[in-house]
Amino acid sequence: MLPPGQLIRSNNISYHNYADDTQIYVSLTAGEYGPVDSLSHCLQQISAWMQNNFLQLNSNKTELIIFGPQKQRERVSSYLHSLSLKPSNQVRNLGVIMDSDLNFNSHIKSVTSAAFYHLKNIAKIKNIVSKPDLEILIHAFVSSRLDYCNGLLTGLSKRAVKQLQYIQNAAAQVLTRTRKYDHISPVLRSLHWLPVAQRKYFKAALLVYKSLHRRAPKYISDMLVPYEPISYFEDLRGRPPVDSQS
User: Fold this and answer.
1) How far is it, in rounded angstroms, from Cα 22 to Cα 16?
2) How far apart are CA 30 and CA 24, in angstroms?
3) pLDDT tens digits, residue range 134-144?
4) Are the CB atoms for 129 and 174 separated by under 8 Å?
5) At what angle do helices 162-176 and 196-212 cross, to 10 degrees?
6) Burial of 185 by CB count in 10 Å (0-12 exposed, 13-18 middle, 19+ buried)?
7) Which of 72, 133, 175, 203 is 20 to 30 Å from 121 by CA-CA measure?
8) Cα 98 to Cα 104: distance, rounded to the nearest angstrom
9) Dist. CA 87–CA 65, nearest whole Å
10) How far is CA 200 from CA 102, 124, 212, in A?
11) Do the Cβ atoms of 107 and 96 come closer than 8 Å?
């Protein structure tokens, strides 16, 4: 992975490497296409390097997406097409479906479908499994999907994540054998389960805490700068403020 990284850096492009995934990205301003040219040139260099080393770039797993206002996305998309690059409206990023509007509707639908599928299978065996084991199954196959990368949902409206709360409510009903129309909030409190809306904020707060105490990746810790307010008796130049009445 070192030579591709050197090629990417030589084009002044930012990137992240994961175990089996590489992401490269550029930022643009309105009417600016220089970074797009650099991106296209970088991809050509990577493809050539792979061919020289008897490797092949899998085009089916190579995706391109544009984030930003729709009108600007359309302009950039047209320019990308002129470079034989075809952007997608949504891509899968480490298991998360990201769309150009960053509303995460497709991701929420995918999580909902998978979680309810497993919850229905768990419900079929709830009468032959002890409650502690049933809770383990629910956390393994349902809660884990609700919590995976849920920090990305921070800032979305309550309506956007309402479907995910239905999943947690259904899981609590299966575990406690609560009737469908019974009030669910006391059940969640008895299980010590934070609702979905609070779970995403808890995840964000935990990440900030770890970052401030150097327990998170360095590139995340470096993004957080503690706020130090200026003393009331000093201005930005380090001198006492001028008395307006003098």
Assistant:
1) 6
2) 20
3) 999 999 999 99
4) no
5) 100
6) exposed
7) 203
8) 6
9) 5
10) 16, 30, 19
11) yes
Give, as one character, the DSSP assignment of residue 16: E
Q: Both tokens of residue 104?
A: 């995460």
The single-letter DSSP state of residue 112 is: H
pLDDT at 240 over 60: no
Look at 10-24, 66-80, 101-115, 200-214 and tell me which has the smallest mean pLDDT.
10-24
> CB-based contacts of 83: which residues, under 8 Å, 6+ apart?
36, 37, 40
Q: What residue spans of the chain are helical by DSSP H?
A: 2-10, 34-52, 70-82, 105-124, 131-138, 144-147, 162-176, 185-191, 196-212, 218-221
Q: How far apart are CA 198 and CA 174, in angstroms?
A: 21
Residue 133 CA, distance from chain mean position: 30
Contact 191, 177 (CB under 8 A): no
Which letter does DSSP use for residue 22 in this model?
Answer: E
| pTM (2 d.p.) | 0.78
Is the pLDDT confidence value at 85 over 90? no
User: 56 is written with which tokens?
Assistant: 């092949």
Q: What is d(CA 72, CA 31) in angstroms, rounded to the nearest whole number?
A: 8
Residue 186: Cβ within 10 Å count = 10
> Whose CA is closest to 234, among 226, 225, 242, 223?
242
